[in-house]
Write a structure and sequence with these properties.
- The protein has 376 residues and is of the alpha/beta class.
- It has a domain of 261 residues: Alpha/Beta hydrolase fold, catalytic domain (Rossmann fold), CATH 3.40.50.1820.
- The chain has eleven helices and eleven strands.
- The strands form two sheets. The protein has a nine-stranded mixed sheet, with helices on both faces. Strands 1-2 form a two-stranded antiparallel sheet.
Length: 376
Amino acid sequence: MKNKSIYVLMLASSVLAACGSQGSSSETDSTTTVNDSTVVKTDSSKSLKPKMAKPAWGPDLKPEMQAVIEKLASYGDKPIPQLTAQEARKNHTPTDAVMDLMKENNIPIPDMKVDTMGKDIPSDGANIHVRVYTPQGASGNLPVIVYYHGGGFVIANLDVYDAAPKALAHLVNAVVVSVAYRLAPEHKFPTAHKDAFAAYQWVVKNAASIKGDPKKIAVAGESAGGNLAVNMAIMARDKGVMLPTSILAVYPVAQSDMNTASYQKNANDKPLDKPMMAWFVKNYLNSMSEGKDPRINLVAANLKGLPATTIITAEYDPLHDDGTMLADKLKAAGVSVDSKNYDGVTHEFFGMGAVVPQAKDAEQYAADQLKKAFGL
């Protein structure tokens, strides 16, 4: 896979240089600070245009979103459900598509003055990697966001999901800790959940060491990571650990029924379809009966006493109803919920703010909600 989510903008050129891979994130991050604030000065008003007719499954796809989907399809990768997990991790990702489109259309990287640093932290007898995003010139203790990437608990890594935590660090003016939890099938359920909680606990105990305010820690995540974010608040409540200030769940995995209206309507959507979700479940769970575990089936969990929660959903996404169902269950449990759906975009749109206007809006919406929770 040609993942190019970590890259350096050369002063002598207006193109993006590619680097990064689906391999171990600990090889990508060192414990030194990396300045990636250099920006190519080109026409940021330029928008992407699709080359083909709209797909049958997406009659109202936004043009920029369609261009990303078309680029992803152009790589000709074999469908993930036909691959092993190890093979699937070598496929191109929506991140690759976005970055190639930016290069081809001379679209600049957003000007986000954020430094990154890698750390290894202990979890359940092993070490996991985290990437710490810190706004440049930060002074004092900033709020902290513990972020969990997507990928169905099976694929993707910190490089694939680099744009969203970087955007949140910049827009909120917060330290973001992105967690490389261990993946299935090498590490089955509930390993990802244990790693996620170990990382949350580490941040609670060590926030000051990364310029963070230990009293202002939120959790956030996309897809599988959205599931983890909600679970972290539940686990903190149940284990007597400090409760997160707030939760941000972007198109979260929230239940195990693959026959909801959105699963049926969006069964053939891209980049996420129903067969992929079944493949993720098969790889992560030890048995299908674990789908009823409240850590997977969040809509059946005890949600009382959780902090204010923001939920973002996309129109063309099998998980659309997971998000709306979770929002309803949280409200019924007395939790303050703010939610927003984005029409014309697909699963994985969040973090594509450089090319998809709806993603840029969603990133700002998420940041505003987090700032509100932090009292900023």
